[in-house]
TrEMBL record:
<dbReference type="InterPro" id="IPR025499">
    <property type="entry name" value="KdgF"/>
</dbReference>
<protein>
    <submittedName>
        <fullName>Cupin domain-containing protein</fullName>
    </submittedName>
</protein>
<dbReference type="Pfam" id="PF07883">
    <property type="entry name" value="Cupin_2"/>
</dbReference>
<dbReference type="InterPro" id="IPR011051">
    <property type="entry name" value="RmlC_Cupin_sf"/>
</dbReference>
<dbReference type="InterPro" id="IPR052535">
    <property type="entry name" value="Bacilysin_H2HPP_isomerase"/>
</dbReference>
<feature type="domain" description="Cupin type-2">
    <location>
        <begin position="29"/>
        <end position="85"/>
    </location>
</feature>
<dbReference type="InterPro" id="IPR013096">
    <property type="entry name" value="Cupin_2"/>
</dbReference>
<dbReference type="InterPro" id="IPR014710">
    <property type="entry name" value="RmlC-like_jellyroll"/>
</dbReference>
Length: 102
């Protein structure tokens, strides 16, 4: 069980760090239907696994839908964001750790 607090970075979005080390961080994001993950970029490589719900992701100039069981990698520095179509949970891994989430 994670000892990290749940934080609310955007309307309808809850984030909780599940595990971390300097080299790797695992983070849970829960989204309400219609909530958005704002477009952003960071130097970390990110992998995303859709545990539940449905989402449209925006990666650079492309968009694609994800559903439970889908996963993908976002390269370092790539601009990305998402919109939640059906409430759900994403599990993101970052390398190295995102110290801004601590």
């Amino acid at each position: 069980m994670s000892s990290f607090p749940v934080v609310f970075p955007d309307t309808g979005v809850a984030r909780q760090v599940l595990a971390d080390s300097p080299e790797l961080m695992v983070v849970s994001f829960r989204f309400e239907t219609g909530a958005k993950g704002a477009m952003h970029h960071h130097p970390h490589v990110q992998s995303t696994y859709c545990e539940s719900g449905r989402f449209t992701f925006f990666l650079g100039d492309e968009s694609f839908d994800v559903k439970p069981g889908d996963s993908f990698v976002i390269p370092s520095g790539a601009k990305h964001g998402c919109e939640c179509l059906d409430a759900g949970r994403l599990i993101d891994c970052f390398t190295p750790r995102r110290d801004d989430f601590l």
